[in-house]
Write a structure and sequence with these properties.
This is Helix-turn-helix domain-containing protein. The chain is an alpha+beta fold and about 220 residues long. The protein has eight helices and six strands, in the order αααββαααββααββ. The strands form two sheets. A four-stranded antiparallel β-sheet has the order 3-4-6-5, covered by helices on one side. A hairpin with an 8-residue loop joins β1 and β2.
Length: about 220
């Protein structure tokens, strides 16, 4: 359980951050009005998460060493996230442009990231439609698209299309399909280029069916 999921751990962190000096378990429990065993359990979890430091203080006189805790400096990583809003803000830069130009820019951005995310073939490897398709499917699957190749013909010929049965950016695609789908098309094109595949994607059909989008493929001349 993270601090984002545990209000008690967030409160415990606040107590440690507000304290002018490191606190022991008993001191922390007193300030929070909790049993020391409960506080110790949550402190151990925060130490394991790297949010709290634990050290031992030697006593000034007779007595046992005391274990104390301090909050690590830095931004609280247990707070809420809103990457959907961030994505909408970034997309808004394109929506203000000419629609055709905006789609072209989104597609080129996708191509750049496709080339970045895909690994090139080994020097002694000859890319084939089968190998390239398998690697593209693995990449898209890792990104959350749940892809499936369809319409594969005889050996050595590429599949006719790739069905994308899940969209990791579904809400954004519903709002800004022209941009998001252009980005996806460019991603596939860039990955295939990086794979030196003898095929490319010519179009992406958004919501071709209620449960999927379809990327259309075609073979390209080999060098």
């Amino acid at each position: 359980m993270s601090t984002r999921e545990s209000p008690r751990r967030r409160a415990l962190l606040d107590v440690l951050r507000a304290a002018p000096e490191p606190l022991g378990v008993a001191q922390t429990a007193e300030r929070m009005g909790l049993h020391p065993n409960t506080v110790r359990f949550h402190l151990d979890a925060l130490v394991a998460d790297g949010l709290v430091e634990r050290r031992t203080e030697e006593p000034c006189g007779p007595g046992r060493p005391r274990t104390v805790y301090t909050a690590r400096p830095g931004m609280d990583r247990g707070g809420p996230r809103d990457y959907h809003l961030l994505a909408r803000m970034l997309l808004s830069r394109w929506t203000a442009a000419d629609p055709a130009e905006a789609r072209a820019q989104a597609r080129e951005t996708g191509r750049t990231w496709g080339r970045y995310l895909a690994d090139p073939p080994a020097p002694d490897e000859t890319p084939t439609p089968e190998r390239s398709t398998a690697r593209l499917l693995a990449l898209l699957d890792g990104l959350g698209f749940a892809p499936r190749a369809e319409g594969a013909g005889e050996p050595g010929r590429p599949p006719e299309r790739i069905r994308l049965r899940h969209c990791p950016f579904l809400e954004l695609a519903e709002e800004q399909g022209g941009l998001v789908c252009s980005l996806h098309l460019g991603l596939i094109q860039g990955a295939l280029a990086r794979l030196e595949a003898p095929l490319t994607a010519t179009a992406l059909e958004p919501f071709a069916e209620p449960d999927s989008c379809v990327a259309h493929l075609t073979g390209t001349p080999t060098s």
